[in-house]
Every structure is written in C-alpha cells, then in structure tokens.
Amino acid sequence: MTHAPTAVITGASAGFGLALARALVERGWRVIGTGRRADRLAAVHEELGPAFLAVAGDIADPEHRTRLAATARAAGPLDLLVNNASRLGPSPLPRLADYPLDELERVYRTNVIAPLAVLQFGLPLLRTTGVVVNISSDAGREPYPGWGGYGSSKAALDQLTAVLGAEHPETSIYAFDPGDMRTAMHQAAFPGEDISDRPEPETVVPALLRLIEQRPPNARYAAGDVVTSGAVR
User: Fold this and answer.
1) Is 134 helix (H, G, I), strand (E, B) or coil?
2) Which pLDDT score is estimated for 230?
3) Cβ–Cβ contacts within 10 Å for residue 26, how many?
4) Model confidence over 147-163: pLDDT tens digits?
5) The 30-35 sheet, strands edge to edge
6) Among residues 107, 180, 179, 113, which one has the least CA distance to residue 148?
7) Where are the domains of the chain?
8) CA 79, 110, 166: angle at the middle one, nearest 5?
9) In angstroms, rounded to a whole number, what is the distance separating the alpha carbons of residues 42 and 124?
10) For residue 92, is the peptide bond before it cis, meaning its omega torsion is within 30 degrees of 0?
C-alpha cells in the first residue's frame, strides 16, 4: 500500500490554514484539521472529503488538545505539523498601556502555550522526515503601535521555535511568516478599512510548500525568503 502523508493543521477552517489544507489534499495528503467553529470545519470536510479529518474545538482548551492528540495517534505517524491557529486579541487593537490583561492571557494561551502543547504530543508522532511549522508574523519583529499583544506572542513563538529547533536538530522545525494576507483576522485588525490589496492566502501557500520540500536549516523564514525558483535564501 502507498503511504498517504499525514498533516495536522490547527486553525484549518479558514484563511491560511484552509488554503494549506486544500493544497495538501489536492496533492494526496490526509489532513487532520482543527478549528473553533464546528460548522466551518464540517463545510471543509464536505468540500475536501474523507482525506480531511475534522476535530472541532479551541486549541487553547486542554480537553480539545487531548482529543486532537488521540486522533493524531490513531491516524499513525505524522509527516507535517502546522501550528497555524492564532488569536488577534481585542479589536480595535489597544495600546499596551491599556491592554486588558485577561485578553492578553487569552492571546498567549492560543499563540504560545497551545502550540507548545501540540508539539509536546506531536513531536513523538513525527516520522524521521517530518516537518514542524509554526506560523509567525512580522509583528513579532517590528514594534507596530497597537500590535504589542499579538506581536509579543509571536515573538515568544519565534523563540520557542528556535529553541525547539536547537534541541531537535534531527527534525525540520521552522517559524514561517506568511506576510499580510486577506483574512478575517487581518480585517479585524483594521476594522472598517479596505484590505483588498492584501494577497489571498492561496497565493502564499506555494512558498510554504517549497520550504517543506527543500528542508533548509532550522530557522525563521518569511514567504519572501522562498524565491520564485524555489531556492530558500
């Protein structure tokens, strides 16, 4: 029997996660996808068929992660694990001096704690050729006013990824910054503004697929680091 590669993608019901799930299923992969909205995940399953295994729930919820871990173990060895689910925080984006601390805790639980928890059960399930991708943001590097909550959580995720990459040099572990995209979360960051000039998530997926195929050294990469020829800068 031919092995169908298997991926876990958090936040797979919309945006970049959905675009990546579609691309992988089209290439013969099996995808275990999570998302908070059960109705959206059901629609993705209806679209993509049995190759998409839906596990609805909030990735920040330990009980949901337990169900996800059980599904991943039952599916067999993993070839790809993508921590894509993110929480923006309040909209409009507040200044750090006014940031509600309970909201900041929610952002960190989703953007930092949950990805590590997923990796703690996911890394042992990875094949020797498996790949880990944590979705990052330029807000984790640049001090954009209003982006202190989300940006600092992505900076923490970048460092978490870097340390895991150093601790597991035998595994391909990357932080990937897809750049601005036309997604619901990006729209929430700019309420009332026209973001139609941002690229669709589908246009960024090929850069991540090339990164996964090429397996460069463990590091942080932006979509622009993967040039048209497919070489990683």
Assistant:
1) strand
2) 53
3) 10
4) 999 999 999 999 999 99
5) 52-56, 30-35, 6-9, 78-83, 126-135, 172-177, 220-222
6) 107
7) 6-225
8) 50
9) 28
10) yes
Instruction: Tell me the C-alpha distance between 115 and 118, whole Å.
Output: 5
For residue 128, the model assigns a pLDDT of: 94
3-class secondary-structure state, position 132: strand
Low-confidence ranges of the chain (pLDDT < 50): 1
* Catalytic positions, written as ranges: 150
The single-letter code of the amino acid at 179 is: G
Q: Which two three-digit tokens encode residue 23?
A: 């691309």
pLDDT of residue 103: 97
Beta-bridge mates of residue 38: none
- DSSP H stretches of helix in 84-173: 101-108, 114-122, 148-167
What does the block give as tokens for 158? 């970048």
- Is the Cα dihedral 94, 95, 97, 101 positive or negative? positive
167 vs 108: CA distance, rounded Å = 22
The predicted pLDDT at position 54 comes to 97
Tens of pLDDT, residues 18-40: 999 999 999 999 999 999 999 99
Inter-axis angle of helices 15-26 and 38-48, to 10 degrees?
Answer: 20
State residue 180's pLDDT score.
Answer: 77
Domain 6-225 belongs to what topology?
Answer: Rossmann fold (3.40.50)
Q: How far apart are CA 173 and CA 18, in angstroms?
A: 21
Bridge partners (DSSP) of residue 7 are 31, 80
Burial class (CB in 10 A: 0-12, 13-18, 19+), 107: buried
Tokens of 205: 């997926």
